[in-house]
Amino acid sequence: MSELDFLAQAFKVTRANGADDGENGVVDARDTLQRMNSAFRILTDAMPQMVWSTLPDGYHDYYNARWYEFTGVPAGSTDGEGWNGMFHPDDQDHAWSIWRHSLATGEPYEVNYRLRHHSGEYRWTLGRALPLRNAKGEIVRWIGTCTDIHQSKMIAEENEVLSRELSHRIKNIFAVINGLIGMSARQNPEMRPMASELQDRIAALGRAHEFARPHSEQSRPVTIESSLSGLLTEILAAYPALGEGRLTIRGDDPEIDDRSATPIALVFHELATNSAKYGALSSVTGSVAIQVAQEDDMVSISWIETDGPTVAGGPEATGFGTRLVQLAITQQLAGSIERHWLPQGLRVDMRVSAGRLKRAEGAPV
């Protein structure tokens, strides 16, 4: 609430109490405004985040105690446009661009940047701000926060490095296996047709691995199939049953994007791997049908195994892969999953949010 809004509210209070609009009313209004401002400062100083506010034009005129504790700068030294000098030089233009866009449009402000700590180190920070509007819808003030996210970002970057290194080693193993097959085929020409087919399968497994491994926004595959059936075909191409017609994909074909590709790939890579070990895909007569149906804002996907080994019941313990699939469906795709251990084969029924498969037009990447 701006000072004008505070003052107007204070006048209403004094009028409601029967005070005149004379000198006593003004004194009461100022007293009320002072108490409200004091309460606001106490509240923001008690928060763990850095809190700041600006005038409608973006002029910074208030920072809480956490800001000065974090930055170590003298009080008032970052008023106006001085705040931008606290950012890492490589982040200043980007932060300014986002902030100007919010000021021009009234849209919420959110940006990650490196903020100079009082130690001299730059720490990653999440900056957010929302506009405060009056009854006419006019912006009278911006209220913002800065949250130190440096530790969590460093952990995420370390995990990404480890993930990339592990992925690199796994792909190297695929390459070595492909090379060994090629050498054997050259020594035994009669094996070349089979070797070529096997190398194609291994290459498909490598592509499936690239989709299924954990990704950051930076490492996420840029080129993906734009539909669910296209992605599933890419992931399952390593299994002979697909080419033989024993692994089918039928029904609706909703669009997807990079956000949903990884959890989808992970889920079906896990289902296919388990089926090849223990289920229908472990048998030359077994088959798997993937059925897809879109119903308004939900998409139903069923994995149905038949004609494989007889199923005596579900496993006694839940493995890591099963828990990972559960997490991908319920958390990342906002859905549900049910497993049915039928005598003729496993059936897995999944329902996922259509909104999680593909971003809406104009949504941020």
Output the keywords:
365 residues; Beta-Lactamase; 5-stranded antiparallel sheet; 3 domains; 10 strands; 5-stranded mixed sheet; Heat Shock Protein 90; 21% strand; alpha+beta; flavoprotein
Description of the molecule:
The chain has 365 residues and is an alpha+beta fold. It has 3 domains: 3-149, PAS domain (Beta-Lactamase, 2-Layer Sandwich); 150-219; 227-365, Histidine kinase-like ATPase, C-terminal domain (Heat Shock Protein 90), CATH 3.30.565. The protein has helices at 3-16, 23-46, 65-71, 89-105, 150-187, 192-212, 228-236, 240-244, 258-278, 320-332, 354-357, and strands spanning 50-54, 60-63, 109-116, 122-133, 139-148, 247-251, 287-295, 298-306, 336-342, 345-353. The strands form 2 sheets. The protein has a 5-stranded antiparallel β-sheet, sandwiched between helices. A 5-stranded mixed β-sheet has the order 6-7-8-10-9. Helix 6 packs across helix 9 (258-278).
